[in-house]
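Reopening this ticket.

The earlier resolution said the output was attached, but the attachment link was broken on my side. Pasting everything inline this time so it's all in one place.
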Amino acid sequence: MPTATSTELYEIAETQHGYFTVAQAKAAGILPNTVIKMASRRIVERISHGVYRLVNYPVFVHGQLLEASLWPLEGVRGVISHDSALRFHEMSDVSPAKVHITIPTLHRVRRSVPKYLVIHRTHLPATDVEVIDAIPVTTPRRSIIDAYEAHLGPALIRQAIEDGRRSGRLTSKEADSLSRRLLGQAPRPGESPSARGAGAR
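Inline output:
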């Protein structure tokens, strides 16, 4: 029979596919020692430092990305970005070996970074971030720019732009602007941006 504490944790975690941090639990009045005891009773499982998951909650297909976004702790969410964001948005054939996240420039991490993570630091305007299925991720446009500035090859950048155009994740105007800015390409003569976008849908 669920206890009051496990019910409270469920309420915290249900908006994050069963995941939660010790800080989130503490903010709800659940002490870290209580979380540790619940882990010993297999009510929750420790995923990484400060990040836990309800054992009986359905497995989330993007669990590693959600874990990565929660990893910074201290009230800060990591934003899935760069190659990982392109992969999440299904733009290009990029297949990153690690998960890229962006955190605020001034946020200090006082523990070692897991081997599966790549940390980027910058200020992300709210307009460059969206939340999809409880995961903070950079917008398609911002993801392409970040990947380009991190030296992703031009073939994959070109593919990401065209995939974004075809899927509607980028407007025709955004796609053409990115092509000019990043690849030095302009729309073909006699073809308007709006016509290109209509033909790609």
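Reporter confirms the inline version is readable. Residues 4-54 form a domain with the Arc Repressor Mutant, subunit A fold (CATH 1.10.10). The chain has nine helices and eight strands.
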